Amino acid sequence: MLYSVGAKDENPNKTGFAHLFEHLMFSGSKNYKDFDAIVEESAGESNAFTNNDYTDYYITLPSTHLETALMLESDRMHN
């Protein structure tokens, strides 16, 4: 999932928040407390990166677990 938000959107006097929020998105939600455990149990991996213009979150899973990836990304968008 590519989000059009990055370092360019930060206050020049308070930088680093885009990268901080990138990491917080992996800390779980009220629906899924351990995001990484769910991905790993599905034989997958997840990661993200932030640059000046955008933040990219991705999950790599076997195709048999596509529903898991969509469920987690949907939850990440809303929570």
Nutshell version of this structure?
With 79 residues, the chain is of the alpha+beta class. The chain is built from three helices and three strands, in the order βααββα.
The tally of domains stands at 1
| Coarse structural class | alpha+beta
Strand content: 15-25%
The helix-strand sequence is EHHEEH
Give the secondary structure arrangement, pairings included:
Elements (H helix, E strand, L loop, with lengths): L1 E2 L13 H8 L10 H7 L3 E6 L4 E6 L5 H13 L1
List descriptors.
single chain; 79 residues; Cytochrome Bc1 Complex, Chain A, domain 1
Describe what this molecule looks like in 3D.
Strand 2 and strand 3 form a beta hairpin. The protein has 3 helices and 3 strands. The longest helix is centred in the C-terminal third of the chain and has 13 residues. The model has no long low-confidence stretch (mean pLDDT 94). Strands 1-3-2 form a 3-stranded antiparallel sheet, with helices on one face. 35% of the residues lie in helices and 18% in strands. The protein is an alpha+beta fold. The chain has a single domain, classed as Metalloenzyme, LuxS/M16 peptidase-like (Cytochrome Bc1 Complex, Chain A, domain 1, 2-Layer Sandwich), CATH 3.30.830.
